[in-house]
Amino acid sequence: MTFADLHHGPSPLILPNAWDVASGLLLADAGFAAIGTTSLGVTAAAGLPDGTNTSPDLTMGLARALVGRLSVPLTVDLEGGYSDDPGAVAALAVELAELGAAGINLEDGTRPVEVHAAIIRAVADAAPGLFINARTDTYWLDDGRRDETIPRLLTYRDAGASGVFVPGLSDPSEIAAVAERVGLPLNVLWQPGLETTPGVARISTGSALYRHALAAALAVADCARTGAKPVTTAVSYPQLQARLGI
Fold first, then answer.
1. For 156, which of 78, 188, 205, 235 is 20 to 30 Å away at the CA?
2. How much is the pLDDT for 1?
């Protein structure tokens, strides 16, 4: 089954987002059908903020390190592509396709719809086998832009997107309307209950796993300070060493 096929199953594709090689490998071992990366996790681990176009080398480095070691498809969060130049973004996409990545995520943010559509079109032309998940931030950044959601997604669909992503979209009636009107696999950001919502084809965890991992680390550190017992069990040192061994 291809990565694209996973978006057409009887239930949504649950896509956990890894921030390093260890998290990616362990998530694949846990039985998830595909793995994504999270731009926030990748940048924060390097001491950088998310969404500032500062991490192409970090993102591409993680992709190179992961793609050959995963037993499942990998899709890479490219933020906005790190450039407004369609050719530059297409070059990154081609490199990822040649590495063996199955897909990419491209977000529009505050970018004009025509600019983002041109980028999607260039990527689709240059790397036709790559699953392009076209993200719009109309729900994420400003409630006043929500009426732009479907027009933007239709433009991205017509430019060659394989699927669409609307983080912040969670109302069942609005999900149904977007899915029906756009006609491409619809990706939403994980919230409990969305896995049973009609119209949802893919659910991404986004940065949630990384942020929960940080919270768990702080909680265990506090246990060391207070003498309390951790409520979670750590991945064992031998297990991790064995999994990372080449």
1. 205
2. 87
* Residue 85 structure tokens: 């130049």
Contacts (Cβ under 8 Å, ≥6 apart) of 238: none
Q: What is the DSSP letter of 235?
A: P
Q: CA torsion angle for 168, 173, 174, 175 (degrees, to 10)?
A: 70
What letter represents residue 8's amino acid?
H
> Does CATH place domain 5-207 in 3.20.20.60?
yes
Give one DSSP letter per residue of 128-146, joined into a string. TTSEEEEE--TTTT-GGGG
pTM over 0.90: yes
Q: Rounded CA gap, 73 and 104, in Å?
A: 11
Dihedral angle sign, alpha carbons of residues 1, 37, 244, 61: positive
- Domain ranges for the chain, please list them: 5-207
d(CA 78, CA 88): 12
- Which residues lie across from 217 on neighbouring strands? none
Q: pLDDT tens digits for 139-191?
A: 988 767 899 999 999 999 999 999 999 999 999 999 999 999 999 999 999 99
- Which two three-digit tokens encode residue 28? 């694949």
Q: What sign does the CA torsion over 57, 59, 63, 65 have?
A: positive
As a whole number, mean pLDDT of residues 38-59 equals 87
Amino acid in the structure at residue 214? L
Burial of 113 from C-beta contacts in 10 A (0-12 / 13-18 / 19+): middle
CA distance 241 to 246: 10
Hey, which bits of the chain come out as E strands?
A: 13-15, 17-18, 35-37, 74-77, 103-107, 131-135, 163-165, 186-189, 202-204
